[in-house]
Write a structure and sequence with these properties.
CATH superfamily of the largest domain: TonB
CATH topology of the largest domain: TolA/TonB C-terminal domain
Number of domains: 2
Radius of gyration: 21 Å
CATH architecture of the largest domain: 2-Layer Sandwich
Helix content: 25-40%
Strand content: 35-45%
Number of helices: 7
CATH class of the largest domain: Alpha Beta
Distance between the termini: 31 Å
Amino acid sequence: MRTTTQWSKWCLSQMVRPGRAISTALLAAISFVLAAVASAQSHPAASPRVLDAREATRLLLEQVRPEYPAVAHDNYIQGQVQLELMVGTDGHVRRAHVLRGHPLLAASALNSVRKWIYRPLVTPAGPAPFNTLVKVVFDLHETDRTKYPASPERDLAEQVKAPKVIARSAASPDSLPMCLKVLVGDDGDVIDSTLVSGPTPLFSLAERTVARWKFQPARWGNLTVPWYLDVVVPVQTEDSPVTTATPERQ
């Protein structure tokens, strides 16, 4: 995990060409972020209730089971996907985010848990949203372990052609770089994002920005597959001009 200083040096190196001076506007943007962080710390927003797995399971009304991805099955990929869910006052999943898991399994898990329905959490103040953690297990149930390759995930990774950006938001001197790990679906859309480094208050802006980018999905042979990709996302602050997506140079 990078420190704040390491994050600043690395992200700025991705966004600012060597020898190019950092603009006054960018310094102002950084100051804006630091002020936002300080404000968030001194005035924390009300958070949804946090339920453990047992409490949340008691409220679960409809559970859609994930499909085992064929590419994962054929390459002996198995294991757990851990997700964080935010459930609204109506019991529907409002947000699902992958905390850990192989990209093939994570994409399938996301597709299923987003369809889960819970009984609303009732509190003395009325229905309330809640967060909970979910583990989705993918098991091949193969008793003869001698059939398994020694390193199936590494073997598959060596065969996959990683996704790449086709068009992204143009970076201006006034934008602030955010480093994200995105899960690009087999159709080229971003289906999940994780903040690697950068100010947390700007993560939602970075997430919305990268969702508008165009990606070429990862490929395993002739098949497109979900895969992770680290990207640097320029975020426009309130005082920054709006930019549009531009084609990536080949």
